[in-house]
Write a structure and sequence with these properties.
The protein has 243 residues and is α/β, with parallel strands linked by helices. The chain has one domain: ComB-like (putative 2-phosphosulfolactate phosphatase). The protein is 38% helix and 20% strand. The strands form two sheets. A six-stranded mixed sheet has the order 5-4-6-3-11-10. A five-stranded parallel sheet has the order 7-2-8-1-9, sandwiched between helices. A hairpin with a 2-residue loop joins strand 10 and strand 11. Helix 5 crosses helix 6. The radius of gyration is 16 Å and the shape is globular. The structure holds D-malate.
Length: 243
């Protein structure tokens, strides 16, 4: 299994999509998506375009839909929820379809929507995604972070390194790290793995979240390694389900 990591959507080579991609946005979109399914969401439909989100969600029964989204970390006006994973309580999301748009995470999902198998990972479901990859044993896995408006993200690289570390330990000799970004991510994980929340609070987006309000619960939730056994997968383009 060859692993490559790309920091942001625009870094992904146009004509070289492998069979399998793993999208990461630790603060907070992929943590939110994994939490939504852990709490019973029916599906998560993701949009990089807000007008398309509003158009498609209007065709869904209001009793079984929720609009979820942020720009700059702040909840979008008229949306039911922002992008805080701790707000997605079971009594709120159970059975609902979430229509979701975020600053960066949904852009990364859109960039690799044409792959055969698209998985969504955060730190909280890292082990679940790693075990799915080991079970399916694809030749190539493209890991894609989300960053911030085209810039590098410390927390997404940390998660990519945590995935590489788990796979290397679980299947020594059969995992190849094929670009510098994944090797750097592994080194980052080795440095920060004993202080995950400290890494998230050191990240520029972590400091951005701190600057717009108290996000202690989000930092705690986003830092909980291997907490839930959920693998969000793309069941059709733009639609995620857990299976
Ligand atoms: C993103 O899309 O970059 C993040 O999810 C933003 C956030 O929710 O803080």
């Amino acid at each position: 299994m060859r692993l490559s990591y790309f920091h942001v959507a625009d870094d992904v080579p146009i004509d070289a999509l492998p069979q399998v991609a793993v999208v990461i946005d630790v603060l907070r979109a992929t943590t939110t998506i994994a939490t939504a399914f852990n709490n019973g969401a029916e599906a998560v439909q993701t949009f990089s375009d807000l007008n398309e989100l509003k158009k498609q969600s209007s065709n869904w029964p209001s009793s079984s839909r929720l609009l979820l989204g942020e720009r700059g970390g702040k909840r979008l006006e008229g949306f039911d929820l922002g992008n805080s994973p701790v707000a997605l309580k079971p009594n709120i999301v159970n059975g609902k379809r979430l229509f979701m748009s975020t600053t960066n995470g949904t852009k990364s999902l859109d960039r690799v929507k044409d792959v055969k198998n698209l998985y969504v990972m955060a730190l909280i479901n890292r082990k679940a995604v790693a075990k799915r990859l080991l079970k399916e044993n694809p030749d190539d896995v493209l890991i894609l972070g989300s960053g911030w408006e085209g810039s590098y993200s410390l927390e997404d690289s940390l998660a990519a390194g945590s995935l590489a570390s788990f796979l290397l330990e679980a299947s020594p000799g059969s995992i190849n790290l094929v670009n510098d970004e994944i090797n750097a991510a592994l080194a980052l994980w080795s440095f920060w793995k004993e202080d995950i929340e400290g890494c998230l609070r050191t990240a520029t987006h972590g400091k951005r979240l701190e600057s717009i309000g108290n996000h202690d619960d989000d930092f705690s939730c986003c830092s909980e390694l291997d907490k839930i056994n959920i693998v969000p997968c793309q069941s059709e383009q733009g639609v995620l389900r857990s299976y």
